[in-house]
Amino acid sequence: MRIYISADMEGVTGLVDAADVQPDGRDYERGRLLMAEDVNAAVRGALAAGATDILVNDAHGPMRNLLPETLHPAARLVRGKPKTMGMLAGLEPGHDAMVCIGYHSRAGSPGVLSHSFMGHEIEDMWLNDRPVGEIGLAQATAAALGVPLVALTGDDIACAEATAWDDSITTVTVKHAHGRFAADLRPMAQAHQDIEAAVATVLSTRPLAAAATREQSTLAVRWQSTSVATTLAGIPGVTTTDSRTTQATGELPALYRLFGIWMRVAASLTSQAPYC
In the UniProt entry, which residues are flagged as the active site (predicted)? Predict the structure, then answer.
C-alpha cells in the first residue's frame, strides 16, 4: 500500500498565530516540531494499516519546515521549492490514498489562519463555479489522478469545509477556532492518538485507489491586485471575467500546475505579508 501525505502547518495541533508558522516567527522552531508530531501520528496510522511506502510532502510556505531527523524513519520526505506541483508534489496515480495533515480553511472563513494559498492576495477561488480553497483543490486534483483523499486534520472549520466538499473524507479536529488567531486546543496526546487511529481505520476499511477522473474543469481566482489579473491575462488560455478575476479551463492536474505559475507571477508583482 502506497500512501501520500501532504503536510501543511496552519492546522497543526497547538498552532494559532503567524509567529507559530512563519520562519521569522518567535515560536516557529517549536511549531515545526509540532508539525512533525502530527505527521508522525499519521505515519504510524498508515503503518498500522499495512502501508509499505509512505511519501510526505512538506507543503507549507518555504516547504522546508519538516526537519528530516524529526520525521518517522519509515517515511520519505519531499522538501524545498519551487516544485511543479507545489503542495501536491510527488503525488502520482500509483498512490493508493492521500492524507492531508495540518490543513486550514479557505480565505474569508473564520478558521485559524484561514487563507487560500497566498494570504491576502487571493481573495476568493472557484472550481467549476464552486467556492474552493486548498482543501477542495487538493481533493479534486488527487481524484483526477485516481487517488482518494481519505483523511484530513485541522481545526473544526477546516474539517467542516472538507466534509462539505466531499463527505467521504474522514476528519480529525485538533482545535476549535475562536477566530483567525485563537483556538480552543485539544490536548496534544489525545489529538495525536486520534490522528493515528483515524488514519489506520480509514486505510483499513474504505476502498482506496480509484479510476482517474479526467474531465474539463474551470478554475477562477479573484486577486487583490488588478496588476496580477492584467499580467496573467497575457498567458495563452487565461481570460479575465472582471478587473481582478482570472480563469482558465483544462484538465486537472494540469490546471493545478498552471495555478502554480499564476502564484509565482503574483508573488513577483506583490509583496504583501500573508497574515498582516
Answer: 115 (nucleophile)
